Amino acid sequence: MKFLFVQPAKKRFAWELHAVIKSLSKFGVDKKDIILLFAKAVKEALYDSNCW
Q1: ∠ CA 20-22-23 to the nearest 5 degrees?
Q2: What DSSP state is assigned to residue 48?
Q3: How far apart are CA 5 and CA 8, in angstroms?
Q4: What's the rounded Cα separation, in Å, for the pair 2 and 25?
Q5: Cystine design at 24: which of 29, 33, 41, 47 (Cβ 3.0–4.6 Å)?
Q6: Organism's domain of life (predicted)?
Q7: pLDDT band at residue 52 under the 50/70/90 scheme
């Protein structure tokens, strides 16, 4: 099983990722099965006028 986490690329979320990786490791999850994706906000993605 893979564990996928998607976070904004902000330093303030680092502690959350650290905590969840540590917790999953304690449950025996291999760190190779933890996937981290970081999203960087772009101006166009914050508001799409075509979605209305």
Answers
A1: 65
A2: -
A3: 10
A4: 13
A5: 29
A6: Bacteria
A7: very low
End-to-end CA distance of the chain: 37
Domain locations along the chain: 3-43
18, 37, 39, 41, 51 from 32: Cα distances, Å: 15, 14, 20, 27, 37
Are the C-beta atoms of 40 and 9 separated by less than 8 Å? yes
H helix runs in 8-49, sequence order: 14-26, 43-46
Cα–Cα distance list, 22 to 9, 25, 35, 48 (Å): 20, 5, 14, 37
